[in-house]
Design goal:
By secondary structure, this protein is α+β, with helices and mostly antiparallel strands. Helix content is about 20%, strand content about 35%. The protein has four helices and six strands; from the N terminus they run βαββααβββα. The model has no long low-confidence stretch (mean pLDDT about 85). The chain has a six-stranded mixed sheet.
Length: about 160
């Protein structure tokens, strides 16, 4: 018999995981639902979504984030999310998953996508209390919801507290 799920993890392609951790992305769009509610570790997958990186919303978020960063004499990189600037294959944030519902017209403004012909059963996963990790925690990742190992949970807790 297994104990209660303390925390589940979700692997998210970059730059979307970055947007959850640093740009106020409080809705994750998925083609499937879950009954799980609670702590959710955001894992940045190895794959990078170049189309998503060029979306207008992502470009605005990325530009604002880079311009707000303290400058240490270094020139700004190009103002588009680029795989070389953001972590992959690591946990980057912890959030609370508070709701999952079918996407509908005019719901979840901002980062919420709306269903289309190719994805009629699109779900919005609503996140709150997002805490970016002080440093990424390397991990392999998984499909759908998955449970971090005890070692990963300890590292996540430590990184979130810093």
């Amino acid at each position: 018999m297994t104990g209660p799920k303390v925390m589940q993890a979700l692997t998210v392609r970059q730059p979307w995981a970055w947007a959850i951790a640093h740009a106020g992305k409080v809705v994750e769009n998925r083609s499937w639902s879950t009954s799980y509610r609670g702590l959710l570790a955001i894992h940045a997958g190895l794959k990078f979504d170049p189309v998503g990186a060029r979306s207008q919303q992502m470009l605005r978020a990325w530009g604002t984030w880079w311009l707000d960063r303290p400058r240490k004499g270094a020139a700004l990189p190009k103002l588009t999310p680029d795989a070389q600037y953001i972590e992959r294959g690591a946990f980057v944030a912890i959030a609370q998953l508070i709701d999952v519902h079918l996407a509908a017209d005019n719901c979840c403004w901002g980062w919420g996508q709306h269903p289309g012909q190719d994805d009629p059963d699109l779900y919005h996963w609503q996140l709150t209390g997002i805490v970016p990790l002080a440093r990424p925690v390397l991990a392999t990742g998984g499909r759908r919801l998955w449970t971090p190992t005890d070692t990963e949970l300890k590292a996540l807790t430590k990184a979130a507290a810093q």
